[in-house]
Amino acid sequence: MAEFRLHHLVRQLLDIAGMKDDTPKDFVEFLQKKITTDSKVVTSGSPVIIQSIVQHLAQNSPNPQQFLSKVEDLKEKNVDSLCEYVQLLHYISQDASLKDFLQKAGKKSDLLDSHSSHTSLTSTTNVTKEDLQQVKTRLKKAVSQQSQGKESFERSKIFDKNMPATSTSVTSWVQRRPSMSWDFSSTTLTANSKMLIENIPADSQENMLIEDLLNILIGLPGCYIDPLPLRDQYSPREFHISDTIEPSLKELVKQILPLASHYSTIQRFTEEKMRFEFGQVCNALAECMGSLTVEYTLFITQLETESRSGNLNLHKMWFYIQKNLHNLAIMSNIATSISKSDARGGKVLSLLHDQVTGYIGDAKAQQLCLHLMQAACVPYMKMLGMWIYKGIISDPINEFLVEDNEVVQKEDMPVDYSADYWEKKYTIRRERIPKFLEPVSDIILRAGKYLNVIRQCGKTVNNKVQLIEYKIEQKHYIDAIEKAYKYASKTLLDLVINEQDLLGRLKSVKHYFLLDQGDFIVTFLTLCEKELNKDVADVVQGRLESLLDLALRLSSSNNDIYKDDLRTELLPYDLQYQMIKILTVLSTEEREVTFKTKKKLSLTVIESFAFSYEVRWPLSLILNRRSLACYQMIFRHLFYCKHVERMMCQVWRSNKVAKAFPFPEATQYRTAFALRQRMLHCIQNLEYHMMVEVIEPHWCLFMQKISKVSNIDEVLSCHCDFLDSCLKDCMLTIPDLLTTITNILSICVTFCKFMQGESALNIGNTPQPPEQMESFKESVTNLDKQFSEALKDLLDQIHGLNKEGSDHDRLYNLLYRLDFNSFYTGQFEQLGLRKIEIGASG
After folding, report:
1. In this protein, which residues make up the domain named Gamma tubulin complex component C-terminal (predicted)?
2. Which residues pair with 20 in a beta bridge?
3. Which helix (H) or strand (E) holds 613?
């Protein structure tokens, strides 16, 4: 499927680039070679190599400084696949022709944009009095909103910028009550207090600065230290110190102020991330940071007590804050990284995990990061526990790594089941996976899926939910996840194979769709012979259902307990059209095949007939619509071959009257009888190849594999491999071979109708006149020529397949069986020599 996906993407790129006449085949082959040869180079790009590439690109860019600043900004935001994107730019910069093409395409798009903007500006609209009244009302409303205050407006702008568009939001208390924020909510300063410090001696200035610093360190405005406006919402807070302060004291204050800047960053982070739309992980992390800032404010309170008792100076303050300065710097760095990258859920945990592993040499810093990580992990691990122990997703803000796509509703599953349920209902969102859970992400997905299926079958899940905690040693939570997965896998496998009798169902499907029950097929063909030759419009499907039920009761299939689930179906297309539509990817060459294989307007019942099978949940996971469609295609191919063989046998039975003719008259039918035998030999060998040399060996291998499976995904994989192998070796997935075989079968049907039809020459109880015999011989010779050419094409196509690979080994058995003892090869060679001799003599 990856190849078809790549083919589709290349086709789209060519259409966008305006290269619709080019075929994507060559591009796909080139990309596949590059993917296989350059995979190691791409995945092993070290930071040193990436940095050298960035420097090289910056040198060649029109504005190197702007380019480097943009790369650094993307690094700070932890943008995914940044290294791969830089390498892509490097490859483009080395290809001069590609650069020219992109520049031309960019100029065209700029021209189109300028033209559209010009037309929009020059377009005139008629303004009415009602429009003017609406504008007036809106202006009044905007002016009234500005009365809420400049700072409130700025805060709402900051907090609303990162709010998810899809989530419902409640106005933050910081917006409603901006003065309640502990991040410099007001800046009311008195000019007199600032002027008084000029006349105070340097020794006395220190006490005033300490009092100012104690306010600044908890987000309150000071008299001589002013917080400057933020450059952007996530930039560090900067301060302005009065110029009248003694220089030595000013330098000490500058050393202490980074603590206030870190506190400001953390306070903004906690006030923003406490809102529910940022997710439970961010809420838990903000709450943990808030509890740590409470401890920090207690420390500032202790400093204030020391100051009031006269035991504190700036040097002591600088000494006391060292521990908190280091801790708040770490927390500020974490808050800035999360905010700039707009991280939520699993991405937040990945950033925290990097911090924990990054401070291996610093035990105290690592312990702080571990504390934050464990607090942030609590809601995520609760979601994980509910999923792997109960199969339930409790994720209101879309943070969990597994997403429920709601493709199929539970109440519709037994009636209208789609194979998309297993593949698409529950999917992994790679950007939400925490790094420490990446090795077991697939196991997590399958464990919950298995339990979800068990619950929907009405079974109770008696798996006790255990608390999973984050620890530096991965063994703790990895073992818990693997244990839950083994329980879910074993429970669902036991339910499907033992309680639901999966093997019995598969054998029942094999009986009917793969013609394993021979007497049933013969009985059904005998009962439905007249109906199968009619047009679809002239047949009542209820009659076919009745004949099917009668055939089941009259044959050995009466002992099958699942026989009542078999149904008949009349499809609106024949087998060849169905297979070509499935296999064709619309490239230039393959469009011709599609146009040649047009849908028939009128179909006979034998061309549109197929069995269907009713399957209930949870067996519909394995016998889904996709697999039943594969079974149907194999059945239609086999069933049509059986029908043609039966027609050939009827011709043989009706031609036995020729034995009563005198020898000279009987020899006139020799060519027709020989052609009939060659056709019968071809059809029977095709059936033998498909049923004995393809289906039966693959079925035995499938049964061996399914007896060793350990989970449902392995059952699905084995079943899919079995069907794919059968389709391939039955020549249904090779369009040229399928077209040739369909042509051979149609020639055989034409021959049978000619030998038995009302408009053709019939073989009666007496020899026919010479004039009619000449017409009969010409028709038989024409059919013989068509059949020989079609058979020659089939043998050449099989012979032309790649002998070096093992993909088509079984087809060579068919080649040797059809061309036994080089019978046809010798005839074709003699025919070619005769044509050459006739051409030379002519």
Report:
1. 502-824
2. none
3. strand 609-613
Section 586-613 average pLDDT: 63
> What mean pLDDT is reported for the chain?
76
Q: Which residues of 539-549 are buried (b: 16+ CB within 10 A; e: fewer)?
A: beeeebeebbe
Give me 526's structure tokens: 């005998």
Phi-psi sector, 780: left (phi>0), alpha (psi -120 to 50), beta: alpha
Query: Which amino acid belongs to residue 798?
Result: I
Q: In Å, how far are 1, 209, 491, 613, 724 from 616, measured between CA atoms?
A: 28, 79, 19, 10, 23
Please spell the DSSP secondary structure of 666-679, one letter per residue: HGGGHHHHHHHHHH
Of residues 98, 87, 26, 90, the one with CA closest to residue 61: 90
Q: Which residues contact 767 (CB under 8 A, 6 or more apart)?
A: 661, 662, 665, 668
What does each C-alpha distance from 101 to 21, 41, 58, 112, 732 come to in angstroms?
A: 17, 26, 21, 17, 42
- Rama region for 312: left / alpha / beta (φ>0; ψ in -120 to 50; rest): beta
Q: Is the overall model pTM greater than 0.70, yes or no?
A: no
Joined together, the tokens standing for residue 803 give 């002998």
User: C-alpha angle with apex 616: 611 to 618, nearest 5 degrees?
Assistant: 130
Query: In the structure encoding, which two tokens stand for residue 666, read together?
Result: 């009987």
The amino acid occupying position 261 is S
* 8 Å CB contact between 368 and 362: no
Taking the CA atoms of 330, 332, 338 and 344 in sequence, report the sign of the dihedral they define: positive
Closest CA to 486 of 421, 419, 424, 440: 440
- Among the listed residues 54, 47, 52, the one whose alpha carbon sits nearest the alpha carbon of residue 69: 54
pLDDT at 704 (0 to 100): 92
Distance CA 431, CA 434 (A): 8
Per residue in 457-505, pLDDT (tens digit) is 878 777 777 778 888 777 778 888 888 888 888 888 888 888 888 899 9
Number of neighbouring beta carbons within 10 Å of residue 13: 12
Q: Which two tokens stand for residue 583?
A: 């296999």
β strands within 316-464, DSSP E = 402-404, 426-428
Nearest 5 degrees, angle CA 821-CA 823-CA 827?
Answer: 150
Closest CA to 622 of 406, 485, 422: 422
Whether the Cβ atoms of residue 370 and residue 356 lie closer than 8 Å to each other:
yes
Q: How confident is the model at residue 392 (pLDDT cuts 50, 70, 90)?
A: confident
Q: How far apart are CA 237 and CA 255, in angstroms?
A: 14
Percentage above 70 pLDDT, the chain:
71
Give the residue from 398, 397, 399 showing the smallest Cα distance to 348: 399
Cα separation, 391 vs 445, whole angstroms: 10
Rounded to an integer, the average pLDDT of 654-660 is 61
Residue 562's pLDDT is 87
User: Are 612 and 568 within 8 A, CB to CB?
Assistant: yes
Torsion of CA 441, 443, 449, 451, to 10 degrees: -130
Report the amino acid identity of residue 63. Answer: N
What is the arithmetic mean of pLDDT over 214-225?
Answer: 84
Q: Higher model confidence: residue 642 or residue 573?
A: 642
Q: What integer pLDDT is reported at residue 702 of this predicted model?
A: 92
Report d(CA 481, CA 436) in Å as an integer.
12
Cα separation, 268 vs 289, in Å, equals 11
Per-residue pLDDT, 163: 46
* 53-67, 428-442, 754-768, range with the lowest pLDDT: 754-768
